[in-house]
Amino acid sequence: MDNCIFCKIAAKQIPSTMVYEDDEFVAFKDINPAAPVHILLIPRRHIATLSDCTSEDAALLGKMLALAPKIAQEQGCAVTFDANGQPQGGYKTLINSGPDGGQEVYHLHMHIIGGPHPWRRG
Ligand code: 5GP
Ligand code: ZN
What we know:
The chain is α+β, with helices and mostly antiparallel strands. It has one domain: HIT-like (HIT family, subunit A), CATH 3.30.428.10. It is 19% helix and 24% strand. It is built from 2 helices and 7 strands. It has helices at 5-10, 58-74; strands at residues 18-21, 25-29, 37-43, 80-81, 87-88, 91-94, 110-114. The strands form 2 sheets. It has a 5-stranded antiparallel beta sheet with strand order 1-2-3-7-6, with helices on one face. β1 (18-21) and β2 form a beta hairpin. 23% of the residues are buried. Zinc ion binds next to α1.
């Protein structure tokens, strides 16, 4: 897709700090992080918004969600349990959809937001 900033990031036509890539997905640091860890995970294929997805995209969406804990772990914010069984660490996974959903960039992306509090926003 011409003129899509995230397509250009995936194609390395514009720079980003990439933290993960495979044949189908790319993940990179958000330019305006809301928290100590703020990663954007995108499919390489241009899909404007979650609302364009159908059941045909279920496998892609499932893979995308399943990648979140792997990337979170690599970024140091996995959910773990201490010796008393208390949960530690963690992150949010967030997909904004449409103007009322706060979507600003129209290439499907999942935010992975985590790290020690306080967070700037989110
Ligand atoms: P949305 O509001 O669409 O869910 O999130 C878009 C996110 O993309 C925002 O958090 C914003 O900071 C980030 N962003 C926008 N432009 C760029 C860019 O050129 N590079 C990177 N790394 N992040 C961007
Ligand atoms: Zn795109």
